[in-house]
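@channel sequence for tomorrow's demo:
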Amino acid sequence: MAKKSTFTYKVAAIVALGGLLMGFDASVISGVNKFVQIDFNLTDLQLGFSVSSLTIIASLAMMVSGPISDRFGRRVVLKACAIIFTVSAIGSALAPNFELFLIFRMLGGIGVGASLILAPMYIAEIAPPAIRGKMVSFNQLNIVVGISLAFFTNYLILALADSDATWVESLGIGEHNWRWMLGIEAVPAVLYFFGLYLVPRSPRWLAMKGKIDEALQVMKLFRDEKEAEEDIKSVQESLKSDQNKKKASIKSLLMPSLKVVLTIGLVIGILQQITGINSVFFYAPMIFEQSGIGTDASFIQAILVGLTNLVFTVLAMLFIDKLGRKPLLAIGVSGIAVFMFLLAYGFNSANYVLKQEKLSALSSAIDQSLIMPLVGIEFSNDVEYKNALKDLLGPTQSKQYESELITAAIDMDPMLILIGIIGFVASFAISLGPVMWVLFSELFPLHVRGIAISAVGFVNSAVSAGVQFVFPWELSTIGSAATFLIYGLFAVLGLVFIIFKVPETKGKSLEELEAILVK
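structure tokens (generated this afternoon):
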């Protein structure tokens, strides 16, 4: 039995590498966006679109990846994702203009959307009920490993760019730092493609295709013989009961019997993104720069965000099958609200005064005669100060030196912002991060699981794209304090829903949950 358990974990770990690529692909842009905005001379909305474009396409990919995998198999589609990640990484790194950069980033969105849906779906279909929560969380763990890896490689490349080493200069790392940040993803993508050859086809998918004998043989790789036979029998019974039902479609999700599970899935899917997690992951250095610590320090603190995410995701995996899904959600969303309110307070208490003695520390490329009218003037919030800089320096130069000019003028406690961000990420990582995908893999009955997870995943990803798109505009228009306050208020509303509406699903087979939740 120990041998089967080891094999199960190995297969889950390989499949979940799709999550690592998803996390890397999504988060690497956090180190890239500042340089891309300057190189391609982008507005705040264009920058927001360059970040959110991947998620927009991922939303569409989620809608079709479930049905496509129902037809061709989970493993086949995941292999295609690995190829797509490779092409996207190389193409976006070599893009000579903004239009091609967008196209290759959008291509990566196909891989992100499909792997985000299919990896947890496959794992749920092979995992024993007693450890299903932990195993499905492998995917979320790999997502956060990918996010952490992106933060780390971004900082490493930024540090190498300042090196005088001959090999660094010959590779053009200093001149093309953001291109290297993007292109390095091709390495794990190739490894993922070949790793999938060690993964068998999903036994539940085989049963759906009528290949019962093969499904049983595959299930025996993950269970002892008796458990494997019982599981396949349960799958057959579930499929038999659905024979008279119409083929799963979007319309089938509107059946009254699915009202409860669909509502829960949609609310949790929206809540995961509307509380601002991808604003932090995709713009972490930019957020830390707003606290006045400078560019290099902001990249270092972004690494802390990634490590925090990793540690608390591991804790979620350890507790999700012990404490249950609902307690982790309640604890985590409460923390999200508290730390978002702390961030709102921290930025709201800041003020900005550019003093004469600070001018000597500014870059020589900044024409100090242009900003002299600001010396000694106090600004009560970041929006007023950045607008004044834009009026004097113009949009391009003010954006290029924004971090430096904020550092020179801001009066606030940056440690408060670091605590708020770290606390928020920890709260998310132990709750909405992994628990949402576990719930998605458990709530929906087998005959609509593919289309249902695709649908709620689409909504989740669409909300994420919207949050990413407007975030740079929000920082420039309503300011950091108001932005984080809005996220905190959404968390409070979500907490109320979790307490009163979300059921506990731990320790039950997928077929048992269907009998309980789908009337």
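heads up for whoever presents: Strands lie at 351-353, 378-379, 410-411.
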